[in-house]
Amino acid sequence: MAEPNGPGGVSKALNAAWVRPFLFLIFIVVAWDLTIRLFRIPPYQIPAPGDVVVVLWHDWPELMRQAWPTTYATICGFLLSAVFGIPVAMLIAGSKTVESYVYPLLVFSQSVPKIAIAPLFVVWFGFGIIPKVISAFLLGFFPVVVSAVQGFKSVDPDMVDLARAMQGSRFRVFCAVNLPHAMPAIFSGLKVSVTLAVVGAVVGEFVGSNSGIGYVLQRSIGTFDLPTMFAALVILALLGVVLFWIVDRIERLVIPWHVSQREEVIFAA
Amino acid sequence: MDPATKMSGVDQSGARLRLVSDRAAGGTPGIQLSGVSKTYRSRDGDVPSLRPLDFHINAGEFFVVVGPSGCGKSTLLKMISGLLAPSSGEIFVEGEAVTRPHGNVGIVFQNSLLLPWRNILANVMLPIDMKRLPRDEYLPRAMELLKLVGLESFEKKLPWQLSGGMQQRASICRALVHDPKIMLMDEPFGALDAMTRERMNVELMRIQRETGKTVLLITHSIPEAVFLADRVLVMTERPGAIAAIYDVPLRRPRSLDAMAEPAFTELVQRIRKHFFTQSALD
Ligand SMILES: Nc1ncnc2c1ncn2[C@@H]1O[C@H](COP(=O)(O)OP(=O)(O)OP(=O)(O)O)[C@@H](O)[C@H]1O
Ligand SMILES: [Mg+2]
Fold first, then answer.
1. pLDDT exceeds cutoff 50 at B209
2. According to CATH, what is the number of the domain B3-104+180-281?
């Protein structure tokens, strides 16, 4: 208890999870500003951070209004990729036949650039929310499937045998053993998926939309309004971070037993 | 008296545990194998794993199988539990032909295989959930078993908070909770250090005595086999066949001191000769 109060408080403040990345962010912004001043980079190439902040401050309500459709499309696309990705992974992991037919095609489909086919969705579904959702879904789907397949496959066959030997039905064994075992892998897939879904939604807005952050981005590029463009990027980054954080929180609730979450359990014990 | 039994002091609970298993058994008790063989069919040809085996394990017997790696011991265990169909022959457990998982066995593997998301008590209750038996009826039994192996204060802990030996003890409770007639153990202590292993051996012997279960245990350690067993089955190289079955002439209850008896060392030497025929043992 002889420890002085000051240093303890500082190190405690440093230990809060958000402080360090925040400090690093400030460092980057300062470096950005200095670079522009030192090398006299004209504002039509890279805007000064101050200008971006001004835009953020001024146009905040408008940006928020535009962020809403993007967020909505992202979440819908992400949920769709979870709802379809996990059962598809279950089928692939559960049946060699399904795997041999579906998996190679799925991998193949990933090498098709989504931005190239996104205009097609606009042709099919018009300038609404649907092309964005599909685009977000297509980007978010694959990581969920790959991780979940890996999760379902990595279960110890002896563990399954043990439950089966106790006359557990296929469904019971699956719910008691396979599914919980795959949860950590599924969540790591979901975390990748949710950030990619943001990209997917923006891609959808790029090719055909009159709302959303992607639309703001495209418009500001067209008029060389770089501060607005950077402000839009900041909004997108924030959106990604917030969604990632939400998935991370849910993960903590769902799999508190997992190695990656154990520290807290120790402190709580 | 056996110091292990004296130390434990839970004989009453043992008696109560035995009471639950007072079900009417149909046909011959124990495990009967007649002409049981196994050939795995895989894409690159057939793998003969077990030659036809005929033997009988009596009810309440401690039966130990030793054999070289890959001779089909785990295969044998899976067939008895009904997880795997034999290529030929028939298996009877308590007089009933085994055609699919029958649930009348408790299984312990080398790794405790506790589910990391269930606490110890919930892990022990897994067979009850799988068999859809009434939970509240078996909960006291699970607690009693945990007490029997000295884990009574750990039931709310998660598996990783326990040592390897404690985890393995919990998995023994799980194998016993639904009160099967038979315990199948596949190298149950193979992952433990030598000292813990000896202690677990003594403890297992006590649990078997107190619950009166038929135990089929697979091990790579010949001294462990002789120390634990009523009878030891020695298997040949793959495809496995019976090389010999030995009666163990040691009195029960046994303590670790039994390992110093001449009868013990003699039998260990004899079994060892099956595996190292060319060595200069004598
Ligand atoms: N699913 C399978 N498909 C094909 N062959 C198998 C399969 N499982 C086991 N085998 C083969 O059957 C033989 C016996 O396997 P088993 O696992 O029963 O051996 P074991 O006696 O338990 O060996 P160990 O002592 O190393 O555990 C091995 O040679 C193995 O290659
Ligand atoms: Mg084996």
1. yes
2. 3.40.50.300
